[in-house]
Amino acid sequence: MLSTIPKSWNVKLKPHLFCPGCGHGITFKQLGFAIDGLGIQKEITMGVDIGCSLLAWNFLDVPTIQTHHGRTTPLLVGYKLVKPKRIVISYMGDGAAWGIGLQNIIHAAYRNNPVTVIVINNENFAMTGGQSSYTTLPGTITPTSPVGKSPELGAGFKGPELIRNVAHKDAYIARTTVTNPIHLLSTLKKAILAQKENNNFALVEVLSICPTNWKTGAKASLDMAFEMEKTYPIGEVK
Amino acid sequence: MIDTTKIILAGEGGQGIQTIAKVITEVAAEQGLDVSYIPVFGVEQRGTPSVAFIILSHEKIYYPRFDSADYAIILQKRAVASVLAYINKKTKVVFDSSTVSVRDLPDEAIHSFGIPATQIATEKFTPKAFNLIVAGKLSRVLNLDEDQVWQKIEKLLGKKFKTPEIKEKSRQAYLSGRKYIFELKDFSRPTFQPATGKIIIKNAEKTAQILPERCKGCGICIVKCPVGALKFSDTLGVFATPVPEIDLEKCIACGNCFRFCPDGAIAVEKNKKLK
């Protein structure tokens, strides 16, 4: 039978809550395939953070917990200490990961806690209306930067490169993009296996698209995601 | 003549509730009325109720809130709960009969009038123009000048009219809303519902499956198709946006649409050969 979705998706609650063309949906599709491919749906516990990522609280048919402001990672670290056989996935946006909750990821990476962190980088604070964030590229027009973001405010925050400097030597850190689902799938699989087989910290940053807040159509959104790859290079950071 | 008119507009974020409210209040203010307009909505981009409280008055307005509305305009089923407290037996309730059933309205709504705005907009104009139909009818009811209202719409929505064609269609939608006459009909069932079920297309080599109940019309599959086998059709999906249709003669079953679709609404597969 031909199926349009991965088996691990929660079919009853579809269509999901994300906007049309959202990069979260593309990421979750590949995450679903990664979970299906590894056959670990019954071992997964998800944690979602504040922002658009919390709309994923019923996305996969797995136990899910929601906390605020980057504390998903330490929460799941504690969960993993109690239940070492579970595989924990901490799912958040760039606001939670690189802004308000940065210290949590730094220490989890430093201690090499076995947790897989997936960070969706869509270059803005999407849920509150697309305001300029640290990952916004200079010159981008947003509601809080009406003439384009000033280059003085930074050239784009490179989270994985920062974490690389403090992370344990065995940690897996990579960046991928929704414009290349095959690379996305293989990276997510590696990140889950790093935790499952070697008990290592894994961090994946996914460059995503946000047609609602970028105010772009399908083609322009994907083109803009290709532009992002010049600032945020794709591949394994460590 | 009634000196004060109290209006409540309710719908969902993204439907244009606040735009209609701005048009009405600004035109009324230009005509010399005293106006008050309070928008109420959350920080979310879509999916939450958006409500506008409007008062138009020939006298001075001392307090902008009110406890019972003269007109309640309801454009979305989920928004009914947020206006329950403001509807009494004298309130004239206008609802989008293409998506809201009269059964969804509270018992107090004795004077309820349906206007199938979504259906008219989709069939005759563009689906997005449905709020202009409502704005047209409301401005007529409130005796606001036809040209003045259109000029205000043009000013507020000018950027969204990317081509003269869209602008003309929007104007036609607005005028048709102005001319619309409420009918006595059975409004117990919404006249417009998005397509449901599965669209399965088969030929000797391939099988394609499209689910309109999941498709949100983002168009990523069309952009990502390497051979141009996909294009928008007339079928409508969950957000009343067009659903793609597939030309299996051109399709090479590469699976790109399936891989990219964020909503899990499309899949193409090569048929298994029987031995």
Order of helices and strands of chain B: EHEEEHEEHHHHEEHEEHE
Q: What general outline of chain B do the C-alpha atoms trace?
A: elongated
pLDDT averaged over residues of chain B:
85
Describe the largest sheet of chain A: 7 strands, mixed
Question: Helix tally of chain A?
Answer: 8
Q: Which class best fits the helix and strand makeup of chain A? A: alpha/beta
Mean pLDDT of chain A: 90
Rounded to the nearest angstrom, the radius of gyration of chain A is: 17 Å
Helical content of chain A, roughly?
25-40%
* Helix-strand sequence of chain A: HEEHEHHEEEHEHEHHE
Percent in strands of chain A: 15-25%
Number of strands of chain B: 11
| Beta-strand content bin of chain B | 15-25%
Count of distinct structural domains of chain A: 1
CATH topology group of chain A: Rossmann fold
GO molecular function, one term (chain B): iron-sulfur cluster binding
Organism (chain B): Candidatus Berkelbacteria bacterium CG10_big_fil_rev_8_21_14_0_10_43_13
Domain 4Fe-4S ferredoxin-type (chain B): 206-235, 242-271
InterPro entries (chain B): 2-oxoglutarate_synth_KorC, 4Fe4S_Fe-S-bd, 4Fe4S_Fe_S_CS, Pyrv/ketoisovalerate_OxRed_cat, Pyrv_flavodox_OxRed_cen
